[in-house]
Amino acid sequence: MTMDKIKFRHFIVAVSILFGLTACTLPGFSTPTPFSFPTPDKTMTALFEPTQAELATSAASESEEDIQKTNTAAVPSDTPQPSATEEPPTATDEPIDTVEPTVGYSGPAVRSGPSIVADYMDQKPNIDGGLYDWKPKIQKVITHVVYGAGNHDGKLDSSGTVVAGWDEDYLFLGFRVKDDKYVQVATEEKIYLGDGIEILFDRYVSYDYYLQAMTADDYQIGISPGKGGIVCYISGGKVASMSFTVPTSTPCAPIPCSPNPPEAYIWFPKTEAGETTKIKIGALETGEGYQIELKIPWSLLGVTNPSVGDHFGFALSINDNDKAGTKEQQTVVSNVPTRFYADPTTWGDLYLR
Description:
Helix content: 10-25%
Number of strands: 16
Radius of gyration: 43 Å
Low-confidence stretches: 17-99, 241-255
CATH topology of the domain at 115-352: Immunoglobulin-like
CATH architecture of the domain at 115-352: Sandwich
CATH class of the domain at 115-352: Mainly Beta
Oligomer: single chain
Number of helices: 3
Largest sheet: 14 strands, mixed
């Protein structure tokens, strides 16, 4: 082999090596993508990786009000049932009317509480507060303090008896109330803040026997003997004056009626709320308190065809205020020791015979 051929081969080898070293950077060749490990899927990672809890807020940085709000919201508790001595001293915070009770609440037709008996009356009594023309016996029942026990000074402070009767058109009630100090300066929906009577009536006992709320068949009615004093009565829907007779039967001069005569107010049902003149009232002062006679149309209570043997939910109460010139419900005395005005299951019974 000649020297020239040997040199030519060396040249070819050198050129091949140089081409191999520069081929990756020659035009027309793309730069290879560098290898890297894949990025974790954060959606899946979040399902499995531990979550760091937020730093706790220092109690020192919170106000007592904020802490109290937090504690109150974090620890729910059952609302306690009102006890007999916790009755809210208001007759205006009544529950909103609910739908007519359904058969789902059906139960016994008679409340288990104390019963007032109403006797059928062939002759209607004169509604003048006198109670002299009643044949049914007086029932000594209104003695249980259900609100304001700390303000009650005994039977002479506030207590009462009742007599009840009925006919096809009316429910008749007569009250003898012992009250050592008559105070009534309120009218209309505020009459419960003075001396007077309260009547609770449940028309359909069995349909909502177990329901601890008032419905459209439940009534709460207040009776005021009169603002300022009891010197008149209502007869036949009209205010009338009175005359007294001394023991010698010599007539006294007529005493003019007070400008604020007795009145009746319906608090419940809400759909019928307001002052009513449909209830006829007679009121008289006595040496120990006052007397009231009532004539309540059955139609006002939604009752049709009352009959012997009928039962209704029923409770009677006396509101008492001894602070002259003020509006305050100091005590409530009832014929039913468990009575709570907004819960018909705590009421008693009215029986027609």
